[in-house]
Design a protein that fits this description.
Layout lengths: L4 H12 L3 H7 L4 H8 L7 H11 L3 H8 L1
Length: about 70
């Protein structure tokens, strides 16, 4: 697992002004599950990443580049 995924998820969430609860609901997961992702335990599915990209109005490249 890429150790930057959690930081990337958190950075884009904060930039969008959404709470962990709001993002969790958007992705149909519990808040504790989403918190684990932000702490690099587990990760969202590709569909969930797609939903985030659309929500944050960024490109897939923006998301992947931030992981580097």
């Amino acid at each position: 697992m890429n150790k930057r995924l959690g930081k990337t998820l958190k950075r884009f969430r904060l930039k969008s002004g959404l709470t962990q609860q709001e993002v969790a609901e958007l992705l149909s997961v519990s808040r504790p599950t989403y918190i684990k992702w932000e702490n690099d335990f587990g990760s969202p599915s590709f569909l969930q990443v797609y939903i985030l990209i659309r929500t944050y109005n960024i490109t897939f490249d923006d998301f992947v580049i931030d992981l580097k």
